[in-house]
Amino acid sequence: MIKSQSKDLTLVNQSIRKSSMKEYNMSIPHSKPFPMNNQQIEANNSKYTQSKPAENRIITISEDIDDEGASFIIGQLLMMEAESPEEDIYVYINCMGGSMYGFMGIYDTIQEIKPDVVTLCYGSAFEMSAFLLSGGAKGKRLALPNSRIMLNQPETSFYGCITDLQLYNQELMIMRKNICSLIAAHTGQRFEKVTADTNRDQFFSAAEAIEYGLIDRILYESL
């Protein structure tokens, strides 16, 4: 249990408690509906709607992320930083995965911007989105009670001649080593353990994710 929380994080927790967890019709600061319509990625036909940052500084990731979607999210993060460098940003995750390189771009941006980024899993955080969840600000990585989190090897689709495929395989090995190193740093697990654990799909409950170090706290375990 975290002993101290930011004022903004407390407001998020209070507003979520007021809502119906059965329908996941959750609220956020300023009484806006969750997920945020004006902040959520519009994934229809892979088109993304660029908009100014929402007043409550929330980004919802609820679709598999491609490179276009990653660019949208990075743009939102940078605009929110410019608008208020000291105020937390909230990233809500219910995602099955997506572009390895796209997620790495989002991750790097989260690490470099000045505001703390609160990550919250509602539903699922699989593959690269689980990695992103673990990369939130220390003490501010959250999940709802019945969330499921899954780590695995990075994967992507490559096409080409045999020589190209060999190069792509080398690239995947480099990226896997890099991602496992970062997960180890965020969780406190040994690199060798993370590497072994991601040989196959590794599923976690919210409680198991805390034990592993992927998140810091479960919201409302009693629900």
UniProtKB/TrEMBL annotation:
Picking any one GO biological process from the record gives:
protein quality control for misfolded or incompletely synthesized proteins
Q: Cite the EC number.
A: 3.4.21.92
Cited PANTHER family: ATP-DEPENDENT CLP PROTEASE PROTEOLYTIC SUBUNIT (PTHR10381)
Entry keywords, A to Z: Cytoplasm, Hydrolase, Plastid, Protease, Serine protease
Q: Can you state which reaction this protein catalyses?
A: Hydrolysis of proteins to small peptides in the presence of ATP and magnesium. alpha-casein is the usual test substrate. In the absence of ATP, only oligopeptides shorter than five residues are hydrolyzed (such as succinyl-Leu-Tyr-|-NHMec, and Leu-Tyr-Leu-|-Tyr-Trp, in which cleavage of the -Tyr-|-Leu- and -Tyr-|-Trp bonds also occurs)
The GO terms describing molecular function are: ATP-dependent peptidase activity; ATPase binding; serine-type endopeptidase activity
Q: Where does it live in the cell?
A: Cytoplasm
Taxonomy-wise, where does this protein's organism fall, top ranks first? Eukaryota, Sar, Rhizaria, Cercozoa, Imbricatea
Pfam families linked to this entry:
CLP_protease (PF00574)
Protein name (record)? ATP-dependent Clp protease proteolytic subunit
Q: Which GO terms describe its cellular component?
A: cytoplasm; endopeptidase Clp complex
